[in-house]
Amino acid sequence: MKICICCSLSFSDEVKKVAAELEALGHEVLLPNGILLDVMKDPNFDPVKAKTCNGYNAIRGHFNKILEADAILICNYTKKRIKNYIGANTFLEAGFAYYHKKPIYALNPLPNQKYIHDEIYSFDIKVLNGDLGKII
């Protein structure tokens, strides 16, 4: 299966490990360009510019990867003291995948983030509880 990973760029190290595990299970993995380029390690990284056509075109570029994939995997870890954090960009990508009827998996349980709670729970996300073998 071709799986597109959606995540916060601050989870770069963890996501690279997940990608390797998925590949070992026989899946093809599409990563965000920001992960591939290790943009968080660049002291001049500008997150707004990265998302525009003048930067890495991160939003549209990742939407294209979602369209190419069979499913998406949200890699959600603790960030800013929010357990299993799903940020704005990842939420946007999940909504895009949902609209295009792509299966959506979350590595960890869904977060308790009030501003996305109702929507994220309506996307029929399959929670893996850390077990990548549950991806079918």
Descriptive report:
The protein has 136 residues and is an alpha/beta fold. A 5-stranded parallel β-sheet has the order 2-1-3-4-5, with helices on both faces. It has one domain: Rossmann fold, CATH 3.40.50.450. Helix 4 (58-68) runs parallel beside helix 5. It has helices at residues 12-24, 33-36, 47-50, 58-68, 88-99, 117-122; strands at residues 2-7, 28-30, 71-75, 104-106, 126-127. The protein contains 6 helices and 5 strands.
Secondary structure topology:
Layout: E1 2-7, H1 12-24, E2 28-30, H2 33-36, H3 47-50, H4 58-68, E3 71-75, H5 88-99, E4 104-106, H6 117-122, E5 126-127
Parallel strand pairs: 1-2, 1-3, 3-4, 4-5
Helix pairs in contact: 4-5
Cross-sheet strand order for the largest sheet: 2-1-3-4-5
- By CATH, the topology is Rossmann fold
Principal-axis shape:
globular
Tally the structural domains.
1
Mean pLDDT level? 91
Identify the quaternary structure here.
single chain
Query: Could you tell me the number of beta strands?
Result: 5
Structural class: alpha/beta
Radius of gyration: 14 Å
> What is the CATH level 1 assignment?
Alpha Beta
CATH architect. name:
3-Layer(aba) Sandwich
Helix content: 25-40%
What portion of residues belong to β-strands? 5-15%
Q: Number of helix segments? A: 6
